[in-house]
TrEMBL record:
Protein name: Pentapeptide repeat-containing protein
Organism for this UniProt entry: Streptomyces bullii
InterPro entries per record: 5peptide_repeat, Pentapeptide-BTB/POZ_domain
Region (Disordered): 1-46
Length: 231
């Protein structure tokens, strides 16, 4: 009996990429914020912070619900463990803002000018970061789900040990990103304007990149795999 001829074996089809969900933010009419200082564990609901200098104030553990922060100064503002929900932050600027282990859900962050922002251990869900520049963003061990970075510049962002699930980079420039020990799932990097990974390129499993990006990353990938490339 002759064996039946078979064609080449094909591997399983890749699972379709799941898209990140953007926040659907609809703020109610807001009251102006008139207090002088933030309170730790304070409750801020339906307030507008406009051109407010919150430098070095302590709002650790505070809850911001349906709030708008516009052109506020956040130099060394302490917001550790804070919860920022259904809120818009437009034009914030500052260095050393402490949002470690905070929760950001259904938040739009627009045209930020921030440096050394601490978001390690934080939870970000349905967050849009659009425009602006953020230097040395610390997202170590953070959890990002349904997060979109759009038309922004991220200089040396640290995703070490973080979990990224349904995260998308659109026209976004990443310089010197650190993915050490990060876990990626449904991460779309194809539309990034520039993709520069300083460490952790071996953690890109779970991400989708473009053919051009693959060529750009080839030297880093070869180095991570111990491959020598010689002419």
């Amino acid at each position: 009996m002759n064996a039946k001829a078979t064609g080449p074996t094909r591997g399983p089809k890749p699972t379709p990429l799941k898209s990140a969900r953007r926040p659907d933010l609809r703020l109610p009419p807001l009251e102006p914020y008139t207090a002088q200082e933030l309170d730790p564990d304070g409750d801020y609901d339906g307030l507008e912070f406009r051109e407010t200098d919150l430098s070095r104030q302590d709002g650790a553990g505070a809850r911001f619900m349906d709030c708008a922060l516009t052109d506020c100064v956040l130099d060394e503002t302490r917001l550790r463990h804070a919860r920022i929900l259904d809120s818009a932050l437009t034009g914030p600027r500052g260095v050393g803002t402490d949002l470690a282990e905070a929760t950001l859900r259904d938040v739009e962050l627009t045209d930020a000018r921030l440096g050394g922002t601490q978001l390690h251990g934080a939870v970000l869900e349905r967050v849009l970061v659009r425009g602006g520049k953020i230097d040395y963003l610390n997202l170590r061990t953070a959890r990002l789900r349904d997060v979109v970075f759009e038309s922004c510049l991220l200089v040396e962002p640290d995703f070490g040990g973080a979990r990224l699930d349904r995260v998308r980079f659109v026209d976004c420039t990443l310089k010197g990103a650190d993915l050490t020990a990060a876990t990626l799932k449904d991460v779309d990097l194809r539309e990034a304007a520039s993709l520069d990974i300083a460490r952790g390129v071996d953690r890109l499993a779970g991400a989708v990149i473009s053919p051009t990006q693959l060529l750009d990353l080839a030297p880093v990938l070869a180095g991570a795999m111990g491959i020598r490339v010689e002419g």
